[in-house]
Design a protein that fits this description.
Helix Hairpins, 7-stranded mixed sheet, 9 strands, 33 helices, Rossmann fold, two-stranded antiparallel sheet, alpha/beta
C-alpha cells in the first residue's frame, strides 16, 4: 500500500476569477477560516486526500499583480515568497484571459511549479470564445485545465494535473523580455546569486525583474545582501539604459513586454466566433445600470429583501417562541431544585432562547444577500453608488465593505484592506459600525414587533436606513476634518451575470448562520448565565416579608384573580425586588443617572453592558430581566408580551433604545479588528465618538417621541 504523501497548493488568481468556487469544489466542507499571522486578512485553508496524496490548499486573497499595494496583495505575495508552497494553481477567468495572464507570468517568474485553471469555460463558450488550451499550454509552458468551478467540473482533472506536474518537477517556461533587457536581468541574477542564503530564500530572476521594476518591497529585501552596493550600481545602469533607449520608465517597459508576450500567446490559442445580437449581461445592464432607474431599483430591492424577511420569517419565529415557552413550562413543572429551575429558565431559556428565536430571520436575510452577491448584482450596486460615495469622501470600492457590514462588522472592516488610500480606508472603517449588523437585527425585531406590531418591517427598515444615513453624515464630517484628503478614482471589474448555484448560496448561508448559532451556544450562553448570577445574587434581605406583603396587596387589589394568577403576579414582583437588590441592580443604579435623561432605567442600563460583547446579548439580557414565569394556564408569556406589559416601557423608550444600539460602539470582536486594521488611536476615537453620539441621538429620539405623544 502506497504511503500518503503531503502536498501544499497555493490557490492564486485575480478577483472575480472564480477562485472561491474552485476552492470549494476541491475542498468541499473540509476547510477552515482564520487570519494570516499579524493581519486580519482572512485565510482560508482546506484539505483533502486524493490518489495517495494528503493535499493542503491555501486560498490566497485575490490580486492582479505581485507588485503589492493593498493589504490583500501584500499577503498573497508574502505567502508565496516566504512559505514557498509546493505548487501554485492560478485560477484564470477564461472570458478575460489577457488581463488574467499578467499575474500568471509573474507567478511563473517565481521559479515554482505552476498549473493554470481555465475557469468559467462555459461562460467563455457562451461568448463565442474558443480556447485551445493545448496550444496555450505549450506556448506558456504551463499546464492548462478547463474548469467550471461553480459546478465542480474539471476539479478532478485539475488535481491530477497538479500531481503529475509536481511529480515530474516540471517548471514553467520563463517569458523573455528581449535580448537587451535580458542582459541586464542576467547581470543582476549573477550578483544576487553571490549571496547563497539570499538566493536560497528568493528566486534570483524574479527578484532581478522586480528590482528593475522599482518594486519597493524588493529593494527593501536586498538591503542586507552581501553585494548590495554592486546591485544598486547595476540597477542604476539598467534604469538609465532602459530610459535612454525606450524613452519610458523601466516599470512601464516591462509591463508592455509582458502584455506583448501575452498577446502573442493569446492570438495563437484563442479564436472568437461572431455572435449575433448583444449578450444577456449587456441587455440586463441597460436597465439595471440606467442612470435614472438604477438607484431606485437598488433601494427597492433592499426594501423587498427586508419585507420578505419579516413576512416569511414571522411564522418560524413564532414557532420557536412557542417551543421555548413549552420548554420553560416543562422545567417549571419538573422536580428539579428551585435554583436549577431558575438557572434553566431565567439564565438559559430566556437568554439563549430569545436569541435563537431569530435564527429564521438571519437565514432568510443572508440567503437573499448571497443570491445578490452570486448573481453579480452587488458589484453593479457599487458602481451605482460610486458617484455619491465620492461626494461624501469615500471610494466607490467602500461600497462592498459597507454592504458586508449588514452581515457582520468584522469581515466588513477586514474588507477595507482593498482600499489603497489610507484616509479612505480609515474613513470606511469608522463608517462601518453605524451599519446595522446581524447582531442588531434581533433587537430591532424584538422591539419593533413588540411596540409597533403593524409596522414592524417598516420600523426595522428605517433603522437600517438611519444607520446608512448616519454613516454617510459621519463620513462627510470626518473627511472634511480629521481625515481630509483627495478621493482616489474607482476602477472595478463588473463580472457577467451568473445564475447562483443552490449549493453555493446554501454554503454561504450555512457559514453565516452557524457563526450566529455558535455565538449563541458559547459567548451568549456564558454571558446569559453570568447575567443570571448577578441578577440573582446576593439574595435580597427581607424578601420573604416582601413576598407576604405583595401577596396580600395583589389579593386585595384584584380579588377576581384565581390563586394561581395571584401567585404568578407575586412571583414577578418578588423577582423585580430581587433584581433591584442584586449586583446587577447596583450596577444599573450607578449607570442610571447618565441614561435617565434619555428615559432609560437601571434595567435597560444593565442590558446595554453585555451589548459591548455582542449585540445579540441585549436580547438575552432583556429575557433574563423581563422574562415572566408560567401563568395559571401553564403557558409562559413571550418576552414581547412581558415588555409590552412592563410599566417602564413604551414605544418612545423602544425607539430610543434602538437608536442607542444602532450608534453605540460595536462588539469586542469588531473593536479588536479596528485596532488591528487602524491602530489604537482610531480605536479610542471610535469608542469615544460612538458613545457620545449614541447618547445624543437617543436623547433626541426620546424627546421627539415625547413630543409626539409616544
Amino acid at each position: 500500500m502506497q504511503d500518503t504523501r503531503a502536498l501544499t497548493i497555493a490557490l492564486a488568481g485575480n478577483p472575480n476569477a472564480g477562485k472561491t468556487s474552485i476552492f470549494n469544489a476541491l475542498t468541499g466542507a473540509h476547510h477552515k477560516v482564520g487570519n494570516y499571522p499579524g493581519v486580519t486578512v482572512e485565510k482560508r485553508e482546506g484539505s483533502l486526500e486524493f490518489q495517495g496524496w494528503n493535499i493542503h490548499i491555501v486560498d490566497l486573497p485575490g490580486t492582479y499583480s505581485l507588485t503589492a499595494y493593498s493589504l490583500d496583495e501584500v499577503v498573497a505575495r508574502d505567502f508565496v515568497l516566504n512559505e514557498k508552497p509546493d505548487i501554485i494553481v492560478d485560477v484564470l477567468d477564461s472570458t478575460n484571459l489577457e488581463r488574467n495572464l499578467y499575474l500568471l507570468l509573474q507567478l511563473i517568474e517565481l521559479g515554482l511549479p505552476v498549473v493554470a485553471a481555465l475557469n468559467m469555460a462555459d461562460e467563455a463558450a457562451e461568448k463565442g470564445i474558443v480556447i485551445d488550451h493545448t496550444i496555450l499550454s505549450k506556448t506558456l509552458g504551463v499546464p492548462m485545465v478547463p474548469t467550471v468551478g461553480s459546478r465542480g467540473e474539471g476539479a478532478r482533472e485539475l488535481l491530477e494535473t497538479v500531481i503529475s506536474t509536481f511529480e515530474a518537477h516540471t517548471l514553467p517556461r520563463m517569458p523573455s523580455y528581449g535580448a537587451d533587457i535580458e542582459a541586464h536581468i542576467a547581470a543582476l541574477v549573477e550578483l544576487l546569486k553571490e549571496d547563497k542564503d539570499f538566493a536560497a530564500a528568493y528566486s534570483p530572476r524574479w527578484m532581478a525583474i522586480k528590482l528593475i521594476e522599482k518594486d519597493p518591497d524588493a529593494r527593501k529585501r536586498i538591503e542586507h545582501h552581501a553585494r548590495a552596493a554592486k546591485i544598486h550600481a547595476a540597477l542604476e545602469a539598467a534604469w538609465h539604459w532602459i530610459t535612454l533607449h525606450y524613452g519610458k520608465d523601466a516599470e512601464i517597459i516591462l509591463s508592455e513586454q509582458r502584455y506583448g508576450y501575452i498577446h502573442g500567446a493569446v492570438s495563437e490559442a484563442i479564436h472568437r466566433k461572431r455572435l449575433r445580437g448583444i449578450s444577456l449581461t449587456e441587455r440586463i445592464d441597460r436597465f439595471v445600470m440606467h442612470p435614472i432607474v438604477g438607484l431606485p431599483l437598488f433601494f427597492f430591492i433592499i426594501w423587498a429583501i427586508f419585507k420578505l424577511t419579516f413576512v416569511v420569517g414571522e411564522y418560524p419565529v413564532a414557532w420557536l417562541e412557542q417551543l421555548f415557552g413549552y420548554l420553560e413550562a416543562v422545567v417549571q413543572h419538573s422536580t428539579l431544585p428551585a435554583m436549577i429551575q431558575d438557572l434553566l429558565i431565567n439564565g438559559i431559556i430566556h437568554g439563549v432562547g430569545g436569541v435563537l428565536s431569530f435564527v429564521p430571520l438571519i437565514v432568510i436575510l443572508f440567503f437573499c444577500i448571497s443570491v445578490l452577491e452570486d448573481t453579480g448584482y452587488i458589484a453593479r450596486a457599487a458602481f451605482l453608488t460610486d458617484h455619491f460615495l465620492h461626494t461624501i469622501g469615500l471610494h466607490g470600492q467602500s461600497f462592498m465593505p459597507l454592504m458586508l457590514g449588514f452581515g457582520c462588522s468584522v469581515p466588513a472592516i477586514m474588507a477595507t484592506r482593498t482600499l489603497k488610500s489610507p484616509k479612505e480606508r480609515i474613513a470606511t472603517i469608522l463608517a462601518i459600525p453605524f451599519i446595522s449588523c446581524g447582531g442588531k437585527l434581533p433587537i430591532y425585531v424584538l422591539l419593533a414587533g413588540t411596540f409597533f406590531p403593524k409596522n414592524a418591517s417598516t420600523v426595522v427598515m428605517l433603522m437600517y436606513a438611519a444607520g446608512l444615513v448616519l454613516s454617510i453624515l459621519s463620513t462627510f464630517f470626518l473627511r472634511r476634518t480629521v481625515l481630509r484628503g483627495e478621493s482616489m478614482p474607482f476602477v472595478m471589474e463588473l463580472p457577467p451575470y451568473r445564475m447562483p448555484t443552490l449549493k453555493g448560496v446554501l454554503w454561504h448561508v450555512w457559514e453565516k448562520t452557524w457563526s450566529y448559532v455558535r455565538k449563541a451556544g458559547t459567548i451568549i450562553l456564558a454571558v446569559s448565565v453570568l447575567m443570571w448570577i448577578i441578577t440573582s445574587y446576593p439574595k435580597a434581605k427581607g424578601i420573604e416579608e416582601f413576598a407576604s406583603g405583595a401577596q396580600a396587596s395583589v389579593a386585595e387589589a384584584l380579588p377576581e384573580l384565581s390563586d394561581a394568577a395571584i401567585t404568578a403576579r407575586v412571583e414577578v414582583l418578588v423577582r423585580q425586588y430581587q433584581l433591584e437588590h442584586s449586583i446587577a441592580g447596583q450596577i444599573g443604579k450607578i449607570i442610571e443617572p447618565v441614561i435617565a435623561p434619555i428615559g432609560f432605567n437601571w434595567k435597560i442600563g444593565i442590558a446595554l453592558i453585555p451589548g459591548f460583547t455582542a449585540k445579540e446579548l441585549v436580547v438575552s439580557t432583556l429575557g433574563v430581566l423581563y422574562g415572566a414565569p408560567v401563568d395559571e394556564s401553564g403557558e409562559s408569556p413571550s418576552l414581547r408580551q412581558s415588555l409590552r406589559e412592563a410599566p417602564d416601557w413604551s414605544p418612545r423608550i423602544a425607539l430610543a433604545l434602538m437608536a442607542f444600539i444602532l450608534v453605540m460602539p460595536p462588539c469586542f470582536a469588531s473593536l479588536a479588528t479596528i485596532r488591528a486594521e487602524a491602530g489604537n488611536k482610531w480605536l479610542a476615537f471610535q469608542v469615544a465618538y460612538s458613545l457620545v453620539l449614541a447618547w445624543l441621538i437617543s436623547f433626541l429620539v426620546s424627546m421627539l417621541g415625547r413630543a409626539a405623544g409616544m
